[in-house]
Design brief:
Elements (H helix, E strand, L loop, with lengths): L1 H5 L8 H16 L5 H12 L3 H28 L1 H28 L4 H33 L4 H29 L4 H23 L18 H5 L4 H22 L2 H7 L6 H23 L6 H21 L1 H4 L4 H33 L4 H8 L1 H20 L4 E3 L2 E3 L1 H24 L5 H13 L1
Antiparallel strand pairs: 1-2
Helix pairs in contact: 2-6, 2-7, 2-8, 3-4, 4-5, 4-6, 4-16, 4-17, 5-6, 5-8, 6-7, 6-16, 7-12, 7-15, 10-15, 10-17, 10-18, 12-15, 13-15, 13-18, 15-16, 17-18
Length: about 450
């Protein structure tokens, strides 16, 4: 009822204007961090370094996203206007700084200063903007959409996932249309564009007028006290299964383009990449909206892990990646695995805040969500690297349709991910306990019988 009344009070009390739209403006801006693969080679060539050396900028961005969310969660909790402004400034400043150091690197090929400047700008400064920008709208959305928390947070996080699909063709067109030095010009232009979008989001974002944050130490327990309200293994289970889901997702997604080339679909890499991005965004929205209808949101994680295990197992048993070139059924299985993992990867993100709110309440959700996003930070440093290490140490590179690929290496990555998915499923079954709501529903059902 409260939400219905709020929508009738003009734009200042409209949940779409005060929560959903600003959340999309923030998340669809910061989500462009995943466009890195579009221009990473261009950066490397322009500043005179290897692609491997520049790749660390993206890893640092994801690491500092998670760590800034963990350490700045309390700031988000206390003042979303301050945190969303920090996000707008840091993200835009990081993009502009990246463009400036690319420009410098173009003038001084092989300059270590240029490379380190990109690490600091894209990795550290932009990373702070990513973490605070990711967290800022989440609690606000759950407060405005209390009956459909999963749908609301899924909508915003889907924006983060869809950002790549929307921004990639725009960035590609800018790189081709801006001529010499297009790579640094693109960053400087987009820094201005995204600052405007995020600043508008910052101005619009507001919590419901009837929500008042608890004041004082006694009114609001520390995060450790909140976590200890349940057995500590409950939170550990949530953190580790979230970490595993991201690690496995990144391991497969980082090799996605080469796997697609390996099975003979090199000409369709762009289309498949767009479709997988749609599955990623769809999983964020679909799984979280579906979870709203369930008594226990942890059921969604069980489903994600079971589906991932099933499709990974099928591709392992059939040798889909090794034997897929020219075999329609195996190609279908490999593509299905890519799409399922992308959907589960996205769904894992969108369900974390609502799962945490069900277990630990809304009082400190921004802070506890921020700490949990540290799992993303460490997964960002381990997922890609694990897959790269396996591909470089197992099998051998062969030529398929003019591309150098390692079918055995990509296939071997699946052995690592299926083991991790099984561990995550066991954690969700054993450590993550049902909420009081789920237990009450189960008891009522038993009594009805």
């Amino acid at each position: 009822m409260a939400n219905n009344e709020q929508t009738k009070g003009g734009w200042r009390t409209n949940k779409w204007i005060r929560a959903a739209i600003p959340a999309l403006l923030l998340h669809m801006s910061i989500g462009t961090v995943y466009c890195w693969s579009i221009f990473s080679q261009e950066i490397a060539d322009y500043i005179g370094f290897s692609k491997g050396a520049t790749e660390w900028a993206f890893s640092f961005a994801i690491f500092f996203l998670g760590m800034s969310a963990a350490f700045l969660g309390n700031i988000v909790e206390k003042d979303i206007h301050k945190s969303s402004l920090i996000a707008s400034i840091c993200f835009a400043l990081g993009m502009a700084g990246t463009g400036a150091f690319i420009y410098y690197g173009g003038l001084h090929k092989g300059s270590v200063l240029a490379l380190v400047g990109i690490y600091v700008s894209y990795g550290f400064i932009m990373g702070i903007g990513l973490g605070t920008g990711y967290l800022s709208p989440v609690k606000t959305l759950m407060l405005w959409f209390q009956d459909r928390k999963g749908l609301a947070t899924g909508l915003a996080v889907a924006g983060f996932g869809a950002a790549k699909a929307i921004a990639s063709p725009i960035m590609q067109a800018m790189l081709e249309g801006l001529g010499e030095g297009g790579i640094y010009k693109m960053f400087l232009i987009l820094a201005c564009v995204y600052f405007v979008l995020m600043f508008i989001g910052h101005l619009l974002l507001a919590k419901p007028a009837d929500w008042h944050e608890p004041q004082g130490k006694d009114a609001k327990p520390s995060i450790i006290e909140v976590i200890k309200a349940k057995p500590i293994t409950n939170y550990i289970g949530i953190w580790v299964m979230f970490y595993i889901n991201i690690t496995c997702g990144l391991a497969l997604i980082s090799q996605e383009k080469m796997i697609v080339k390996c099975i003979g679909l090199a000409a369709s890499v762009g289309i498949i990449s767009t479709v997988s991005a749609i599955f990623n965004a769809g999983g964020r929205l679909g799984f979280s909206a579906w979870a709203d209808t369930m008594k226990d949101r942890n059921t969604i994680y069980k489903m994600i892990f079971i589906l991932s295990i099933a499709f990974t197992g099928l591709v392992i048993l059939t040798g889909g990646i090794k034997n897929g070139n020219g075999n329609g059924l195996l190609v279908f299985l490999v593509l299905a695995l890519i799409f399922v993992v992308n959907a589960g990867y996205g769904g894992g993100f969108s369900n974390v805040p609502t799962l945490l709110s069900d277990h630990y309440g809304m009082g400190s959700i921004s802070a506890i969500h921020g700490i949990t996003l540290s799992a993303w930070a460490f997964a960002g440093l381990t997922g890609n690297q694990m897959a790269n290490w396996i591909v470089n140490h197992f099998g051998e590179f062969v030529e398929v349709d003019g591309y150098s690929v390692n079918p055995v290496g990509y296939q071997t990555v699946l052995y690592a991910t299926i083991v991790l998915y099984i561990v995550a499923l066991l954690l969700s079954l054993i450590f993550v306990r049902p909420t009081e709501k789920a237990l009450a529903a189960k008891k009522a059902k038993a009594e009805a019988k």
